Amino acid sequence: MDKKRIIIKIGSSSLTSLHGELSRRKIEKLVDEVVRLKDDGHEVLLVSSGAVAAGYRKLGFISRPDTLPEKQAAASIGQGLLIETYSDLFISHGYVGSQILITRDDFSDENRYNNARSTLTVLLERGIIPIVNENDTITMDFLKFGDNDTLSAKVAGLVNADQLIILSDIDGLYDDDPRKNENAQLLDQVHEITPEIEAVAGDPGSAVGTGGMKSKIDAFKISLASGISSFLGKASTPNIVYDAVNHEATGTYFDPKEENENLNQKRQWIAFNSGPEGEITINDLTGASIQEDNKSLAPLDVHSVTGRFDKGAVVRIKNISGEDIGLGVMNYSSNELKRLINQKEIKLQDFQEAAVESEDLVCHLDVAVPVGV
């Protein structure tokens, strides 16, 4: 069996009891399956929800709180309970778990992004099981990843994983909503996210968790663009993780097409994590050219500049018609580009470097997910 680097994401509803409290029995099932993979020599990283669900009753609430401060207070209690349970169970099997709390800012800053990758790589190579969650206690809603489905796909790309497994309270992706259509068919294999698939993926999350099918589809868009095979299945199914790794589980497998060009680490960061600082407009013909021919963007192709940014910033690129072209790392500041646009006599020797190099440009044609999210 080939040794793999595997990311497993599990949602809150799959870790808690009917009363909303942390279920040790459910966590034990997951840990046993992870241990089986570890015993086979695989590297495993967990992205685990459950902090708010585990903590809100200890805070005195009888149901999941609604306000941000209450959720964050619950998370501050629940995260400790969650990691303590995981740690005790892994240690009983001879393995060590580590806690990694991440915010969106950690991914949007390229230096912190690279540092996170280095830390996680050391842990995985040393046989440790990183247990990742968003730092719910301090993260503001507008700075959140949104859900751990998205986080797990971004972490999978961050550490160059071989497989992403998302476990939930559903047993895969259907061609229609099975709650409304008893003839809905489970899709065994998906190679691309089509408009038809997106149309049936708009359901909300469970009462316990935050992610629904739409968030999972968004996550699989990221994993497919990153060249990572993925799987969606039901957490309560016996041996679901082990069977998914061996392509024997019941669920949906998301496998990239072999002919697709996968985004490298740099372009993954630009596409999914950077957070654009400004915007430039180019003419429609140039937009078509850089998308279809993978060309660099010349300074003279910049028609207008919006916002203020320094050299090295990531900016959003649009055409004059207002269509999004993609994102790119700028070799000029906004002031330099504005000076080029406004000056009557252009000294070409001052603008010999490309505005955006082709390897630092990610277009919408490169990925099936909106860039810059």
Automatic annotation (TrEMBL):
Pfam families cross-referenced by the UniProt entry: AA_kinase, PUA
Compartments in which it is found: Cytoplasm
Catalysed reactions, as listed in the record: L-glutamate + ATP = L-glutamyl 5-phosphate + ADP
Coiled coil (UniProt feature): 334-361
EC number per UniProt: 2.7.2.11
Pathway as given in its UniProt record: Amino-acid biosynthesis; L-proline biosynthesis; L-glutamate 5-semialdehyde from L-glutamate: step 1/2
Positions contributing to substrate binding: 49, 136, 148
Keywords: Amino-acid biosynthesis, ATP-binding, Coiled coil, Cytoplasm, Kinase, Nucleotide-binding, Proline biosynthesis, Transferase
Residues annotated to bind ATP: 9, 168-169, 210-216
Main location as per UniProt: cytoplasm
PANTHER family in the cross-refs: GLUTAMATE 5-KINASE, ISOPENTENYL PHOSPHATE KINASE
HAMAP family: ProB
Name the record gives this protein: Glutamate 5-kinase
Organism the protein comes from: Pseudalkalibacillus berkeleyi
Species lineage: Bacteria, Bacillati, Bacillota, Bacilli, Bacillales
Gene: proB
